[in-house]
Amino acid sequence: MNGIALRILLGDQAKYIGLIFGIAFSTMLMSNQISIFVGLMLRTAGQILDAREADIWVMDPRVEYVDEIEPMTDMQLDRVRGVDGVDWAVPFFKGLTVAHTRDGMLQQIILLGVDDATLTGVAPRLVLGSVEDLKQPDAMIIDRAGFQFMWPGEEPGIGKVVELNDHRAVIIGISDASAPFTTYPIVYTKYSSARNYVGRTRKQMSIVLVHARQGVDTRLLAQQITIETGLKALTWREFTRATIGYYLRRTGIPVNFGITVALGFIVGAAVVGQTFYIFVLENLRQFGAPRPWASPTARSCAWFCCRPWSSRASVMRSASGCASAFSRSPHASRSICAASSCRWKWRSAQPAPSW
Q1: Distance between CA atoms of 306 and 159, rounded to whole angstroms?
Q2: Exposure of 302 by Cβ count < 10 A (0-12 exposed, 13-18 middle, 19+ buried)?
Q3: Under 8 Å between Cβ of 190 and 199
Q4: Predicted local distance difference test score (pLDDT) of residue 4
Q5: Most exposed of 302, 308, 345, 354 (fewest Cβ within 10 Å)?
Q6: How far is CA 24 from each of CA 29, 37, 264, 267, rounded to the nearest angstrom?
């Protein structure tokens, strides 16, 4: 039966190609939209994933995701460092500012300020330059996509000079940072330089990056930091989920992608189902003809021999069935003989008709 069904499927090339095209199109559409959606959601937490050294992110209790920052005073850093189980804690700045190039171009950038001594929080992969060069005066590292966005058509290179809040900054490295949710370039600089680039205020520290001591559970340590300092402390996994969850709740991105995926599934199912339905309607006789052979060979022979012979057509059908079964199995002859003997005895036992 499977072989006959496969030959019927491949026999009509037009329907077969339409069936394959419908399955391929719907599968491609759904997988493409799902992959874009996952990649877009991971972009929202790119800065969290790039700061691999930090186990815990400490922030103001009102902060819900990484792009919504409420500055804190520098005194909070000392309070976090005093919690038992903290190996080290460093300040981290995140904000937006405007960069001016010598060509007169104006571009808003994402400014990330890392600790002056340890440089914790810089993207781990650099295309050009060295992380240690960031300790130089007025030094900054820009991501590769941001460099090409600000200087289109030029190969990424170091030595470019930009102006940030009337302060001079020199590009000393090109990073391969994770792409952000927006198209803004990502710039890394020292924490002290970042405060000058945006203007000094009473509260400037955005986040405290914490590394737990060896053997200390990060979740328990985050809870202890929250209890002792009153700040929100989340592990990097929890902060990533919180950021992604914020965009899922507050934007229409999941609804739009969900509608597209659902339409792809419905269209694919409709095309495939309609094509299969037409196949079945056009080949009902071919599917029904070999039905008796689906049973064991001996049973099929007995069924053909013992059925009432009402006409010559029935005889011919029974004979062809027995012949086919006999050709399939060497044991079919015994079943045929047994069935024929039973039928002969049954007819001999019947009384002769009286005229």
Answers
A1: 97
A2: buried
A3: no
A4: 63
A5: 354
A6: 8, 20, 11, 11
**What's the whole-model pTM score?**
0.72
DSSP per-residue string spanning 30-95: HHHHHHHHHHHHHHTTHHHHH-TT-SEEEE-TT--STT----B-THHHHHHHTSTTEEEEEEEEEE
What distance in Å separates the CA atoms of residue 319 and residue 301, rounded to the nearest whole number?
A: 9
Q: Residue 291's pLDDT is what?
A: 53
In angstroms, rounded to a whole number, what is the distance separating the alpha carbons of residues 48 and 294?
62
- Give the C-alpha separation, 47 to 121, whole Å: 8
Identify which of 63, 69, 157 has the alpha carbon closest to the alpha carbon of residue 113. Answer: 69
pLDDT block averages, 10 residues each, the chain of length 355: 66 77 87 92 90 92 91 92 94 92 88 92 88 91 91 88 90 90 91 87 90 93 94 94 93 90 88 79 67 51 42 41 46 45 44 48
Residues 197 and 35: beta-carbon distance below 8 Å: no
Q: Report the distance separating Cα 109 and Cα 120, nearest Å.
A: 20
